[in-house]
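Explain this fold:

***
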Amino acid sequence: MQPKRADISEEKKRLIEGNHRFIQTHGHDLARHVSGQKPYAVILTCSDSRVPPEHIFNAGVGELFVVRDAGNIAFGSSVIGSLEYAVSHLHVPLLLILGHTNCGAMKASETGPGDGTCIGDIVNEIRCCFGGDDHLRDNVRRQEKMILQRSPAIAQAVESGALEIQGAIYHLEDGTVEFL
């Protein structure tokens, strides 16, 4: 049994206070988003907390449709379905696969194959890109290809010219984004 925590943990207090600051800063503008969204890009990126696309690209509420998972992999119906929603229903013209330096999922993948757990499945998916000497860029490029193989809807949008797929690397060290 886990020990009982105080009524409101410090972490929860930080979330509540952060939400209050968000409302103070953006509350006057939020109602305009209730009727729908029109993001200009969908970004598949890592779930790493150091990789916040809205901050990296200085984007506001409603401008980016962000799908995150460990290792920025186009794997599983939840990820592919979310990307398809952005492309097919929101008509987003750009899909960016954003990898990043110092990625824990990439480092875990480089140490060996997965262990049969869900984390192991992620590791094994990333390991499929190994073969060259630049695993980070190879993974981003592989995900560009895998999206097209795993989603006929996205492949059709690319074929028709309605969607561009672009790979990029976010450099944690200095904040720059390197488009591949």
Q: What stands out?
A: The helical segments are 10-26, 53-56, 77-89, 104-110, 118-127, 135-150, 152-160.
